[in-house]
Amino acid sequence: MSSALINNAWLVCVFPLIGALVTALAGRQLKQHAHWPVVVGIGVGFLYAFTLLLRTPEGKDLVAFSWLSVGDSLKVPIELRVDGLSTMMLSMVTFVATLVAIFASGYMAGDPGYTRFFTLFGLFVFSMTGLVLSGNFLLTYAFWEGVGVCSYLLIGFWHEKPAAAAAAKKAFLVNRIGDVGFALAIFWMWKVSAGHSLSYLSILSHEGLAALSEFDRTGISLLLFWAAAAKSAQFPLYVWLPDAMEGPTPVSALIHAATMVTAGVYLIARSSALIVGSPTAQLVICVTGCVTALLAALIALTQTDLKRVMAYSTVSQLGFMFMGLGAGVGTVAQLAVVAALFHLFTHAFFKALLFLASGSVMHAMGGVIDMRRFGGLWRRLPITCATFALGGLALAGIPPMAGFWSKDEILTALNKASSVANQQGGPGWGVVYGIIYWVAILTAFMTAFYTGRAFFMTFFGPEKLPSPNDPEAEPVDASHDNGHGHDDHGHAGHEVGHESPAIMTYPLIVLAFCAVFVGMIFGPWTGWFEGQIETMIGFHTLNPSEHHGGHEWDWLSIGVGTLAGLLGLGLSYLFYGQPSPIPGRLAKAIAPLYRLSLDKFRVDEFYGLLIVKPTTLLSKIAAFFDTNIIDNLVRLVALMPRLFGRDLLAPYQNGLIQYYAAVTAFGVAGFLTILLLF
Amino acid sequence: MPVVPAAIDVAKQTLLILTPELLLLAIATAMMTAGAFVKLPRRVWASIATGSVALAFVLLILLRGESTPMYSAVALNDTFSLVVRGFLLFTGLILLGLAHNQVDESRAAEFFGSLLVIQAGAMIVASANELVFMFVGLELVSIPTYLLFYLCRRTSTTTESATKYFFLSIFSSGLLLFGMAYLYGLMGITNLKALGFLLHHVSTGPSLYVGLIGVVFVLAGLGFRVAAVPFHFYAPDVYQGSATILTSLLAWVPKAVGFVAMIRLLTATLSPVNSDNPLIAKAILVCWVMAAISMTLGNLVALLQDNLKRMFAYSGIAHAGYLMIGITVAFANRPGTGRVALGTEAVLFYLCAYALMTLGALGVLIALSTPDRSIETIDDVAGLGKSHPLLSASMAICLFSLAGIPPLAGFFGKLLLFSSAFSAMTDDEAWKFQILVVIAVLNSAAGAYYYLRIIVAMYFHPAVTPLTTKVAWPAAISVGTCAVLSLVFGFVPGPVSSASRASAESAMLHPVPSADQGADSPKTVMLPLESSER
């Protein structure tokens, strides 16, 4: 029974796919019920995944079937890996996706592209679950591309908006940069692995790793991290994620906060057995994560677009996860991997919650998302306010919320890494990790501050609603008008300032519950999460010595981390809890820095000058070369069959039987003469 | 001395395994005789034909365990025979679905009767183990085809193409019979398995000149059936000039039969012969040239065609060229060199893919045609994507498969053919096969153009004359089956390729007759080889 359950784990990704296909084919008939096949498909997928999770499989590799096999060098099996890590991720992805899909059925109601939205949504969940279930780097790559395409299509969902189309293009191109890294990593692995196998089991197993040289390990690890940095929006490839907020808010919540952007973290954690073999790669990962976390938090401090604040916060938190992964030096390895994955897990819940709550605000404000245009909404949107508050506390890392436990684990790992890194890397590495530790605490403080700022600006202070002729309000209103004929709920867009319908608030409440409790249920208290991760390939060999025990509490990190969170929240209340002159004065006092943060450190402009302009120039030259030289060559080749076929061969196809028979006879005679004589 | 089974037992057993063919022939004879006396609606005749093909299929499955002694029976029931006959019956059903309304009511009995005889003849070729019996099978395919030309709608162009096909087909049968006589002359026996076994065990090896004349003439005779250059001339004229249902019959059945006969007569029989023998080297050369010229000429000229049936004729020539690669490789494969039957396996897989995609694509033309309007040119299918979305999607799948786009059946067929050529030889002769693969890949690239052109017309061009044809359900099912299977075999090629491999390997068997168990020993002993084993 149980083994049949595990052997059919592929069903988890098939259910959402079926849902998507049904919606795609029958969408026109289903009209406003077009979301049902997808919601049910993902929901059933979740039930299956959760059953798998409760059975705590011991880690099992399944080869569904061998798709392609050329000689001995190229084999493409459809290979799955079911273990604690994949079932945990599957459950999380399908759970959050179910709630977001329900939320979206209210949020997107009346949109002319309702069917298209849910089809793409289902396809995304299919790709994401496939990515998590895959047991082979090549298959992972395929699904990696799949989530990328779905993300592209969903960011550009309102493609008639130029900003959305541009954001989609940007996301796609930046992700392509990362894909190059992944492809190179796969080529490298194919070259060095035994039997050219690309399955996790043969590369990440003890024997597989032993066959790799130090150089191979570092190279592959860095290439994989290159791929992860693009997908998980790390410096310097994070620029696409904030722009991706042009997509519908449920998409931001699911794809650009909870699931797809964590795929990079997942990939690195999956390959951690390989990564720990290269301290250099670990340091690179840790420093990149640290820079990203700090930079994104600094930008988030001054943004006024509620969704952008959340986007930069996501970038920053992803940086936290990479810091955790990079901290896995020596005996800290197991702790670090568990910490990073646990932060990924808890972050999915509270960040999805914060995004959906922002979406609820946006819905109630008729599409306006600029925090300066509204305020004091707690009386009008009580449920949104309460759930946002819980999500915010979790993000700020206040005990006992979910975010506290995972953030604390990462800080603990960094703290320990600073004391053991000297033995692993060399003199001075401990200091580097020490600096990263304190930067992480500073970032935690800033996280709490901008979270509090967003909350207080939106829900506290004197009540203020956006004016009806607000320029931002129009596009969403227009879309509501278009679909008015079959719009049953979702009138909030017309009358500004009402709480969202129940179909949108219930998912918020469920997620808020998770934001409070998942940390306690799965965290170091119960050790459930760690127990799951242990079945990952190569987990037991992560630590060099047999150093494994229960969770050790690092009271310094707990104390300082909590203090940073409380300080940040308190300060933000002081600044934004009621109208106060302090922020304005402060901004003036450090005007250059303030401008720099507001302008997002001008990274986009810098890229525009340094990369986009030269690339455009190069592509113009290439286009000239293509149209004037290559095309003419092609035309010349295309002329050949015309000359050859029409003028040389056509006379011989003359329709006379005698002629055909004669050619046949001469053909036989010719063959025989040549063969017999030579 | 081996115990030779009594002749009467062998004959009984042979008749038993040929029950499906006998059933089809009996029903066909009954239909054609009754047609003169009884007036029944066309759909009744079509149903009887379909029912008997289905019944033959059931019989084939029931008889799968039976076998005949390899060195004394005229027909075999080995895996090769079973798989190929099963697939031929399956395509017979598809053809019947397409043909069900393509003939006048008054001539339906003879029409469907002829189709059943062709079916039986094709199956006999697949099971034949004897030169004369093989020839009987081939003629059972050809002669009813002449009849069909006169039973379908008659105009001056169809009469012209019927005449052309009749004369040239008889001519090619003559060539084939001449070649077979020389094969017989090699050892003085007509049993193919025994011929293959003896060719290896006679110390002097086969006589070069006798063998070469046999191989070249047999290739010429069969080359006509598969429409390989330079025996292809009839194809464009005849395909274009006849009713579309005949075009699809000609595009599939003779081609399948021709390649199956090449495997049985030539590659499987000559395979145990040492590769150092000049006969094998020269046979490889002939096939190499036929493959290279066929695909190049077929693709180049197909690029210029606007008439779809003529285009499919040239495309069929090109595909015959691809399949000849497999035959070339099959000559090079021999027991003891790792995978013994790479080339044969690839040919069988490709034939399966080819049947699905060609019958599917031509089936769309048949399904859309009406007695008043035959769908023939590229302008006729313009705008099909709007008027018949499902039919054009099927057509698109079949065309993509013909072009060899992954992940469709046609892609895997090409992949198997090309990779078999790459691993055909490992010594310094390997470059010959690699050049052939390069030619083939260039050809596939050029060939993609004319298939994609149809897809562009279907989806992106406005209809010239709007199509309002209501598609009959049997034709729709046939076309749909072809498209779906082209897709399925692309995603899950395993079953087809393992069936092809098993068939190919069984065709290559020449076990040493063991004394105690009679000639049909189940032991599958490979021939001992003087050359070093890999």
Characterize the structure shown:
- The complex is a heterodimer of chains A (678) and B (534).
- Chain A has 28 helices and two strands.
- With 678 residues, chain A is mainly α.
- Chain A has two domains: 3-598, no CATH class; 621-677, no CATH class.
- Chain A has a two-stranded antiparallel sheet with strand order 1-2.
- In chain A, strand 1 and strand 2 (74-82) form a beta hairpin.
- The longest helix of chain A has 47 residues, at 603-649.
- The termini of chain A are far apart.
- The longest helix of chain B is centred in the N-terminal third of the chain and has 32 residues, at 156-187.
- Chain B is globular, with a radius of gyration of 22 Å.
- Chain B starts with 6 loop residues before the first helix and ends in a 27-residue tail after the last helix.
- Chain B has one domain.
- Chain B is mainly α.
- Chain B has 20 helices and no strands.
- Chains A and B meet through strand 1, helix 27 and helix 28 of A and helix 7, helix 9, helix 10, helix 12 and helix 17 of B.
